[in-house]
Amino acid sequence: FSPGLLVVAGSFAAFRLLNRGLERLVPPPPSARRNRWKWRNIWTSLAHSVLSGGGALAGFYLHPDLSKDLVGTHPPGAHSLVAVSVGYFLEDFVDMLCNQKLHQSWELLFHHSVVIVCFGIAVLLHQYVGFALVALLVEINSIFLHLRQILLMANLVHTTCYRLNSVINLGTYVVFRIATLAWMTRWLFLNRENVPPATYAVGTVGMAIMTPMNIILFYRLLRSDFFK
Description:
8 helices, mainly alpha, 228 residues
């Protein structure tokens, strides 16, 4: 029994409680009251992105040598941060499954399944935690993706705040999402002889799924916010 599973369970419960209490903390505007669960869901996701993205960025800033060994070593707290993220993705998976129709959420459910499996391996084996931490850098961009959804739901599309967020969102998308995934794919390819075949297969399949999904989302954002 891995202590990491306790962190996963605690994280799941904590994000579930946060989700339930967010409507009181951040009351939905009139334009979002028809979809209250989505309002709570996005704010919960934003909280996770700030925590995990900020934590991953701090980890690489404070431990610059971490990128030299993404398999066996990691800074204190990195394993717990990855376990916390597994708990969040499980909570978000359950939340969408209970509140949204499958044809509307299948892409995110599929994405979450891949992340849970890959991060779960890192948590259980205490291996590849550094690699998972690289993946969490993606959450820096997710902060602005979630802010975009909040502004859309609050009917604040035609504001300076939305336009500014759109520019930052696109910039961080290229730096922290597309470039990060490309770096991870390159790392897997260069280290294929040092990674067990099963783990290499899981990582390769994960990258093969994530890369086209993120390119499609980038195109949708570009078309929606800049090429209307």
